[in-house]
Fold this sequence. Notes:
Number of strands: 23
Largest sheet: 8 strands, mixed
Amino acid sequence: MSLSKADFVIIGGGVVGITVALEIRRRQPQASITVFDKENQCGFHASGRNSGVLHAGFYYTADSLKAKFTREGSRKMAAYCESRGLALNRCGKLVVARKEADVPVLDTLLERAGANGVRLERLTLDEARKIEPRVKSRGDCLWSPDTVSVNPREVMSALVEDAHNNNINIVTNCAFVARSNDTLIFSDRKVQAGFVINAAGLYADRVAKQFGFSEHYTIMPFKGLYLNAGRVGTVKTNIYPVPDIANPFLGVHYTVAADGQVSIGPTAIPAFWREHYKGVQRFSPREMTSIVSQQAGLFLRNDFGFRDLVIAELPKYLKSTMIKLAGELAENVEQDGFAEWGPAGIRAQLIDQRTNKLEMDFVYEGDQGSFHVLNAVSPAFTCSLSLAEYFVDNFAIDV
């Protein structure tokens, strides 16, 4: 194997890895920066498979990193898309109550919006129907005018192009294998790095363990599937249910993409291996043994309501279940022609093994030699430009 050197090595070419590379370049014009990704293109996993919704930032408690960076991150990403001529749909979002118990949560979300400096309006159902005539709710609705949609693959392509134009070396089809003292071993080369950034997504915990981090954490994969409508423009805005604010999943909702295409979803089905996208593709017996064993324990104890989640999620493999749930948000769902499943995405959800609970916020660890982004789930895509600044600020070296 050849041996090379780089001032900064980034493991993982998703939106976090590429935006961090660009932020380092902004601060250090002369540094050598190399991004490694095991796939044949950057953004193959969550960064290119998410809904493309830029969240406004009213779901999160004011003391969280998600609250701190979602509002500004959304504005920065929308401005970036405009400056690069990328698709941008300022379609907004309605949040509706499916049952009476949801109504008090509207007040909680309004309080969080106020604390986070996010625009959020309370509307009567009649007022909401002036925005989307088909919307349903058991009471009032919330209107988020600053929720927008972009094309995530288009965004990733633009960011990668920016990286190339800024002399950032991107190496694809090259997987991280191990660390040996100050040398990183990849599938076809060895690299001596001045500083290492781990943005490996589904494998961030495994990479971190090579550096002595993620001692108490592990990634639990959840599969997200959307059903696509047969035509564009069946609804005018995103329609989301009031979420269960005790867990990080937002429930089945109507999503309006950058091009106006409408989908319903996603699922949050526990996956049996980390890249369990479809059938037995990318099957890993070792991963399945470990993950299913952990899931069995969570199911028996019902930690964080895992058993309830599994029971609720598995029926969503049926299109009829998804359409029924969507029918709680909008009238005449059947007319939309939801028939085709879109490509699956996998949520790399971090679990604290000390408490057997899901991590609700972004999580990172590091020292003077490396920095590890362990939990970068939604809304990390929304936050990415602002989050990259924060991560680089928190490197244990002078960048």
